[in-house]
Amino acid sequence: MTIFDARTAFLMLGLLYLLLPAVTWIVLAGQRTIQIGLWCGGGLLVGSASILVGLHDIVPEWVSLILVTVMYRVAFLLRVQSLRLDLGIPWRWRWIVFAEIVVLLIFLNIHYGLEDYVLRAQFNSMVMVGLLLHLATLAWRIGRDEQSRSAKWIAWVYGTVTAVMLFRFFAVSDRSVNFNILDEGLTVQLLAMSMLLASVVGHFGYVGLALDRSMRRELKAAVNRARDEESRRLGAQIAHLDRQRSLGELAASLGHELNQPLTAILTNAQVAKRGLQSGRFDTAQYAEFLDKIVHNTQRASQIIERIRSFIRPSASRSEPVDLNMIVREVAELVADDARRSKVRFVFSANTDQMLVMGDPIQLSQIVLNAFRNAIEALKHTTQREIQVSCRYSNKRVILSIRDTGPGLTPEALDQVGTPFFTTKSTGLGMGISISRSIALHHGGTLKLTNADAQDGGGAIVELNLPTLSEVNL
Amino acid sequence: MKTPKEYRSPITVFDRKLAERCTRGRVIIIDDDEEILSALTALVEMEGYACETYVSALSYLQMLNYNRPCFPGPCCVLCDVKMPELGGLELQSRLAELDDTPVLLMSGACGVQEAVSAFHAGALDFLIKPIDADTLLIAMDKALVVSAERYSQRVRKVTLAAQIATLTERERDIARRVAAGQTNPAIAEELGIALRTVKLHRQRAMEKIGAVKMTDLVRIADEGNL
């Protein structure tokens, strides 16, 4: 029984199998992966093999018989490997090669050694059944895992091809002549048809699957981006709130700080006024008083500017920052607090520029946090010093802030930096974790340790940042 | 370099002016802010007082150790409360141990607690920065008056003690009894001496300590620990 000419069918099948993988490859141009490459490569091999089958009797026997079987097997091995890669359970390539060689050797042995052509056909069919069944199972798994209808379609069509192959296995058993595959009649017709179906459905299904995936990937990426954005925004907000909080706590002393220049201004102005009333001063003296008033006004506005710039919720900047200058500015900010607590700052002699790349406000926040913790820690000690040193070490800038307090307890050392861990009754426990995330964001680290007991003890905060040149590289 | 013994500085016009200012009053200002120091100095000197400034309480205490000579006159200390190392309140308590110089405190933030403890420790006034010039000058005047009063009291006590030291034992005894309100006959009877002798001793004692009337004697006995 012949529905159509088997030779034509195989030639058409071959052309289709050459065309569709190429189309698939072009359609999926935007997202080519090794899996898609393997899948399309397998398709091309099937196509070439099918054409060779169609050219049976025209090309030499070893080509149409042996090479074709090898090509089919390799083609479906590639497709199986492609799906296995998708599932994350790839076979080792050397095992694939080894298995293929073993199968080929058995095949050659049956063909040339035993010259049992039925057995050869059965063996061949069985190997193909195994491969195709595996392919269908893998496709089914992907369809189930990713809830993709396309993958299930692939599974269905390859399942059909498997069934036809199984049918062929039994169909060839009662023949005992050296037959031509093209003369197999119904079997080969069914086979060609099912392969035709597989080629169309399989490739469209595969494109659908890939597009599904890319869509899902994009969605996921978009969700992740949104989440990152959100967490960064939240992080910035928390950092901003923390700055506001620490300034709020400093407010009283900042008021006093502001009072100093105001006092000087008031007194100078009143002296000048009194001098004017009594006519006792000359112009040069007035100029001097006015100069002093101007100077102190500038001083006051600097204090306000310092507070404002610290509290402003600005977008994260990245610019060359002198760490030494930041330290000095923040020391000014807490100067009054330190004075009230009778804490003395000891700066290392090195006052050169220590340039790092970063956001000056955020870096100030780290330093402010460290200073305030240190002042707090020094409340109950007799020697009250904060030693600040800044040095280069191995292309890093290391800022070390050490107090002469009691240091951290082992439990505190263990847990410090965990959000909401605090040793203070009024603390939120966010300070160090915020500082740490800022340091991380700048490509650096923040380390808390205790100084040696023989050295006097006390806590050390060490901020380690890449130098400017290192960032540029 | 000359040794202190050989060294005698000549009296200059500046010294004379300074001496003049010092008789009006000497104000010691302590604040860690140099801008404030210079402004306050200008104000105080314009009003004709002598002015000394220190950037920390410690440096003032160190200076006191050297006992630098200065011209006589009333004196007061104007000191900031919040300073590194040694704050205004501590300085006040240390000064109280040394002498009776009146202390004015000034502070930026009005800490009620601070003000209360300052007044408890005997501060004359507590000024809130920024300080109005008039308020400061009034407070300063008051402090200098207190200083002058304390000084004259001290002087009177010293002279009184000297006068009392010239009394004989008997004269002193009788003067004490008179001040306590005993009559001449009662004293004579109690001591077993003649009324005339009592009157004589009493007259001499009153002359020696410069008392004209009975009330003078009573007051001196009260003040001078007769």
Q: Can you give a write-up of this model?
A:
The complex is a heterodimer of chains A (473) and B (226). Chain A is α+β, with helices and mostly antiparallel strands and 473 residues long. Helix content of chain A is 68%, strand content 9%. Chain A has two domains: 6-228, Rhopdopsin 7-helix transmembrane proteins (Up-down Bundle), CATH 1.20.1070; 315-473, Heat Shock Protein 90 (2-Layer Sandwich). The model of chain A has no long low-confidence stretch (mean pLDDT 82). Chain B has 226 residues and is an alpha/beta fold. Chain B folds into two domains: 13-152, Rossmann fold (3-Layer(aba) Sandwich); 166-224, Orthogonal Bundle (Arc Repressor Mutant, subunit A). Helices cover 58% and strands 11% of the residues of chain B. Chain B contains ten helices and five strands. In chain B, strand 4 (103-107), helix 5 and strand 5 (125-128) form a beta-alpha-beta unit. The longest helix of chain B has 33 residues, at 133-165. The relative contact order of chain B is 0.09. Chain A binds chain B through residues 252-253, 255-257, 259-268, 270-271, 274-275, 280, 289, 292, 295-296, 299, 336, 338-340, 342, 344, and chain B through 32-33, 35-36, 38-40, 42-43, 46, 82-85, 87, 107-109, 129-133.
